Structures are given as structure tokens and as C-alpha cells.
Amino acid sequence: MSRPNHQWRTVRATLEQACDRFARLLTSVPPQTMATRDWTVAETGAHVASIAYLYTAIVRQDGAPHPMPELAAPIASTNVDTVADINDLALRSYSERDPAELDRRLRADIGEILRVTEHLDPATLIPWLGEAHVPLAGVLAHLVNEMHLHGWDIARSGRVSWTIPPREAALFFDLFLIGMIREDHGRLMDTAGPKRSGRIAVRFHSRYTTPATLVLQDGRVSVEESSPRADVHVAFDPPTLNLMLFGRVSRPKAVLTGKITAWGRRPWLLPPFLREVHLPTNRRPRRHYATPTGESAGA
């Protein structure tokens, strides 16, 4: 049984639960509170709602029109270094900022996603950012992660409690990240600057995920199904890994708290590996339009 099939029911139930938690949080913190350096709570909610709105179309198999046609071309040509531009464009296109209406729309769109995908194969490949292709189960896991991360932003700004359950966070690694890299990450992970030549193999371990080895070979990353000699082994707590990958928790803090540990025959290769195999943290040096916008880790 494939990994997506094995966890299909889990990710669907988790998406519904995460939506309920996030929507209730969104309406509990004043909307003009700054959730990040540049985004208010209302804008953070609109960012998440815009992704759910987009996903109501991309998960369909009936040729439904793109709900934001102005994003179609930029989405296809983006990579991790330019995802911020997509997020800016999406926020300009998705103008709703009222928390109660965002709550209603988010619940409705996630309900539609679950309805449309109920009888689809979770391994179905969905065209995604940068001409990547992600298994359907991974698309749902990505949306769960968006609510985890941005819920963390909102809760911290409002000084309220927010937990990211490890089993839920693990879905992002198993279904989205590994699923996308195993299938086709297109140009999404192509970054600017020189590429390191040679090979680095990093094996990731967690009690909540299937062990997986990512191999960086001459600037291209892949999943290696069998890796008897990894250069580095990384044991991780899934919530901490996700927060670290998207710039919420620093690498030193993740290591010092014992949530991320590394060992192996060549552990010094982990920093250069992470410089090339990374996800968008997108901290803007300036504002891009009139109303406060900005940090959008996790497009």
C-alpha cells in the first residue's frame, strides 16, 4: 500500500480539524494585530484562505477554470526564491479581510476540497508551484501545514495557546515534501547562485514518519529509496522541523532544545545541504504595496 493511500483518511480528518482550530483562532485575535513583522492577523487569515480557494480548483478533475487566472503564469514559473511574489499577488487578488467572512469562506472552501476529493486516488499528481507535481494527499498536507504555521504566527501575536500535534505535522514531511521530491519538483527547488558539485545524502528519522533519504546531487535533490551509507542522519520533532524550515525557529534553537539532532560519518555536510534544499521563509526587506503585507512562509 502506498504511503498516500495509507494516510489518506488521516490527512482528510486532520485538514478538517485544523480548519476548525485555525478559523476559531482567527476570529479570537484583533484583526489589526501584527501577526508577523509585516502581516496583520486579517492579512494572515486572507493568505491562508486564498490558498484554500485556489485549491478548490486545482484538486478537481473536471477542467474547472482557474479561480485567479492572473496567478496561473506566475505560479508555473516560480521557485522557492520567488514564492513571495506569488503571495503578494494572491493577497492583492483576494481582497477579503473581515475575520468572520474569512472564517466562513475558509470552512466552505475546505469543505469543498474534501467533498471533491472524497473518491479520488490520493496518489493522483496535482500540478503545483514551479511546474512541480504533488500527490493529492500531499496537497491536503500542505494546507494543514499552512494553518499550523500561520496559526502559530497569530497565536504568538495574540499571546494565546497554539499547539502543533507531532502526528499532524509529520504529514507535511511524509506526504508533501517527500511526495513532491519523489515525483517531480519541477523548477520549484531551483535556487539562485552556484550549485555545489558532488553528492550529499541525508537520512531523516522521526517516530512519526517513515525514514527517508534525500540526496543532493550536483544541485538536484531526489529521494533515494535505499541508502546504506548516508552522510548525515537527522532525527527530528516534526513541529520543530516545519517551524525551522519556514523560518519560525532558528537552527541553533532547534538543536539546543534537542528537537533536531544530527550525526553520521560526514555531519559537516548538513549546512551546505540545507542551503540548497530549503523552503521559502520570505522575510521581506520592504513593503510591496499600500496595506501591510509581507512574511508568507509557506506559500
Q: Could you walk me through the main structural features you see in this protein, from its secondary elements to its overall organization?
A:
Helix 2 runs antiparallel to helix 6. The relative contact order is 0.15. The chain has helices spanning about 5, 10-25, 40-60, 70-75, 85-95, 100-115, 135-160, 165-185, 240-245, 250-255, 270-275; strands at about 125, 135, 200-205, 210-215, 220-225, 230-235, 260-265. The chain folds into two domains: about 5-185, dinb family like domain (Four Helix Bundle (Hemerythrin (Met), subunit A), Up-down Bundle); about 200-275, Nonspecific Lipid-transfer Protein, Chain A (2-Layer Sandwich). Helices cover about 45% and strands about 10% of the residues. With about 300 residues, it is α+β, with helices and mostly antiparallel strands. The protein has a five-stranded mixed β-sheet with strand order 5-4-3-6-7. It has a two-stranded antiparallel ribbon with strand order 1-2. The radius of gyration is 18 Å and the shape is globular.
What is the beta-strand fraction?
A: 5-15%
CATH topology of the largest domain: Four Helix Bundle (Hemerythrin (Met), subunit A)
CATH top-level class of the largest domain:
Mainly Alpha
Instruction: Summarize the biggest pleated sheet.
Output: 5 strands, mixed
Distance between termini? 30 Å
Number of self-contained structural domains: 2
Average pLDDT value? 89
Anisotropy-based shape: globular
